[in-house]
Amino acid sequence: MSAGTVTPTRSSRRPSWRTIEKITPYALLVPSVILIFILLGFPLGRLLVISFQEFTRKQLFNPDTVYTLDNYTGLIDAEFGWVLVRTLVVLGAMVVGTMLLGTAVAVLMQRLSRAMRTLVLVGLLFAWATPPLAATVVWKWMFNSRSGIATWLLQFVGVDWSGDNSVLFSAPKVLTVVTVVVIWQSIPFVALTLYAGLTQVSKELYEAAEMDGAGPWRCFTQVTVPMLKPIFLLLGTLSIIWDFRVFSQVWAFNRGGPNNESLLIGSYSYFASFSQFDYGRGSAVAVVMVLMMIAITAYYVRQMVRSGETA
Amino acid sequence: MTTVAGSTTPAPLTPAEPGGPKTPARVGRRRSSTRAGGPGRFGLNLAAVAVFLFSIFPVYWMVLTALTPNSQIGAADDSGRPALLPWPISWANFETAFHKDRFADYLINSLVVSSATVVLSMAVAFLAAIAVARFRFSGRAVYLVLLMVCQMIPLEALVIPMWLVLRDADALDKFPTLILMYMAFVMPFSIWTLRSFIQAIPADLEEAAMIDGCTRMGAFWKVLFPLIAPGLVATSIFAFIQAWNEYIFVLQLMGDGNYTLPYWLGSFTGKEGTDWGGLMAGSTMFTIPVVIFFMLIQKKMTSGLAAGAVKG
């Protein structure tokens, strides 16, 4: 083809231009699709297979060919039931906390003077940038039973978390602190994204609302919320996905202790695989987790993609 | 815009009639500044300071502990309050951290892995982002959903299947493996963000260039690319940080020579307890590059996402 194209290029280009236009987007997507399928699709398929097999350390080297539903039926027990309950409660607290506080900070930033806004911004950046691993370690140190500053602060207001009442001896306390750590690190992204969105909302809308006698609250519900709905949708969906998957904070804080009672679904899957060496069960948990996440976010993802299509 | 119209449509008209188009804007501005003045302003500033303190305190505490000599860590004053200022300052913990394990090797590993991940995944993500932002084609929605689903996969759960796949391919404990795996989780979000950045730039610009005789490729490189460069840098740094922070894959799939810095952070907790001073010094060293990068990108990152979201 290349040999004979020298002269007819110009004339033959016109008719083929449309075909090129049609093929281009697919050609651009090819590398990413191949990578996604090899790097994620392939292991994901393997994960699915393992979840239908008895798979312990023995099978790592001598794979079974027998398929069974045992890993899934085995999940109908009290242990996993509690993992689910904890996960949903903690997820709710994290997402609601992050969205409410993030929105509050964004609205606050909108009303501050430039200097004060920079101050808030610098603080948020530090919380955001701290690697989750380092953040978890620092919070754990702040809640240290003997010399943690947070422990001292709690003591000051009359709550005793020292010695035998240490955070590390109680799953609810561990999960509370983990929730605070996650919210602390998630606020900046939500607040700054919303703030960036707020600066794009035309000032005239607020002025108009004020002329109509709307107070700050009505301005917020009647102007801010509807205008920023797409951003709220995006941030809410991402928060649910990220917080549902939360792993580092739980694992680095106390490895799911005490008595594995602070394990959430993500860390539980890891725990079943790497502490109990029941890779089949761990994989089944992971599959359930992905399905739950898809179910929870299906509506939002559809909305998001739809609004992306019409724009 | 349409959503608000119901309640506010008549409002802009009423004041505009007597005063002309400029007056209402000025009135409005004066109003909003009085609203925020006086005691209200004090409350807002107080809230701002509270947000600042809450956000920055753990980081401050980390650095403070790192600068405290080991014998002083955990020491309290008469009321039992831990000291709030580092005095006397000691660099001993940082010295410990520098010589702990194989810091220099792991630092180089971290830098190499993270940089390679960024360069490779940005090249691939940029192409894909152009496709979804600038073309309408069947299968586009499916691809977008695929990207979202990619973010839902719990990577910790992929360790075992990945280990099996890599063992069969004889690719365990090798650097390129780690880089490829990081691409897997860095890429989907990068495509998503880059798409927002590209969408925020009007397509008219490229069309104008094409009318002026540019090819489509030429229009991309000469018009779109320079405009998108800041967004590309921001996304790159964000990707770098994600790779920098990852530790489960390193722990499970790499060996002694190929560990990265998060592994080194784990070495401060031993059988005889945790060296809190050293650990905080290590965490500080691990955190500083990330904070600097974040300072550089944050504005681009959030405004890019918001722009993309407002427009869809």
Gross morphology of chain A: flat
Largest interface by Cβ-Cβ < 8 Å: A-B, 118 and 112 residues
Classify the oligomer.
heterodimer
Radius of gyration of chain B over all CA atoms, rounded = 26 Å
**Terminal-residue CA separation of chain B:** 14 Å
Report Rg of chain A: 26 Å
What is the CATH H-level superfamily of the largest domain in chain A? MetI-like
Task: Write down the domain tally of chain B.
Answer: 2
Report strand order across the widest sheet of chain B: 1-2
Q: How many individual helices of chain A?
A: 14
Q: How would you describe the shape of chain B?
A: globular
Overview of this protein structure:
The complex is a heterodimer of chains A (311) and B (312). Chain A has 14 helices and no strands. Chain A is mostly helical. Chain A is flat, with a radius of gyration of 26 Å. Mean pLDDT of chain A is 87; it is low at 1-13. Chain B has a two-stranded antiparallel sheet with strand order 1-2. In chain B, a hairpin with a 2-residue loop joins strand 1 (269-270) and strand 2 (273-274). Chain B starts with a helix and ends with a helix. At the A-B interface, helix 1, helix 4, helix 5, helix 6 and helix 7 of A face helix 1, helix 2, helix 3, helix 4 and helix 6 of B.
Per-chain topology:
The complex is a heterodimer of chains A (311) and B (312).
Chain A lengths: L8 H43 L5 H5 L8 H4 L4 H34 L2 H16 L2 H11 L6 H8 L14 H30 L2 H9 L4 H12 L1 H16 L3 H7 L10 H10 L4 H32 L1
Helix pairs in contact in A: 1-14, 4-8, 4-11, 5-8, 6-8, 6-12, 8-11, 8-12, 9-10, 11-14, 13-14
Chain B lengths: L1 H7 L1 H10 L3 H13 L2 H30 L24 H8 L3 H32 L5 H13 L6 H10 L6 H25 L4 H8 L4 H30 L2 H6 L7 H6 L2 E2 L2 E2 L1 H36 L1
Helix pairs in contact in B: 4-14, 5-14, 6-9, 6-11, 7-9, 9-11, 9-14, 10-11, 11-14
